[in-house]
Amino acid sequence: MTSQQQYSLRWNDYTTYITGAFDALRYEEDLVDVTLFCEGRKIRAHKVLLSACSSYFKDIFKENPCQHPVIIFKNVKYADLLSLVEFMYQGEVSVSQDALPSFLHTAELLSIRGLADTNNEIKRKLYIRKTKLLIGKTERNIQNKAK
């Protein structure tokens, strides 16, 4: 029996390419499958990327297997949410000093990896419950309007 030689193939700029590809998909709104709604404005994104960067989003999407959920945020600033989405897509974001406390608080609520203290599980679970109630109400409203 002869042993075959194994070859290791590596895509040198894989991380850079994937980061750019997801950002381009978001910018062009291609294949988006979740809408975040905050202060009367919306942000379209990809569930898989949000889930990879946030245990909050991962739990929401697993517990609400909706094809294209709309998540409504109360008491969250649109600028903070937009900056957090940018952080998740690009791995970095610029935030003014004045906006930093609010930004970090929102990152904590949403359990954003790389920004939030993961020991804040109780707060996160309470916020998930409130969000689930809003998602359920939104889905019922959409179904009622379709009738």
UniProtKB/TrEMBL annotation:
Keywords annotated in UniProt: Nucleus
Keyword Nucleus: yes
Pfam family membership, one: BTB
Transmembrane regions: none
Entry's Gene Ontology BP terms: regulation of transcription by RNA polymerase II
Location of the BTB domain: 32-97
Subcellular localization(s) per the UniProt record: Nucleus
InterPro entries, alphabetized: BTB/POZ_dom (IPR000210), Dros_DevTransReg (IPR051095), SKP1/BTB/POZ_sf (IPR011333)
Entry-linked CDD domains: BTB_POZ_BAB-like (cd18315)
GO cellular component terms, semicolon-separated: nucleus
Name of the protein: BTB domain-containing protein
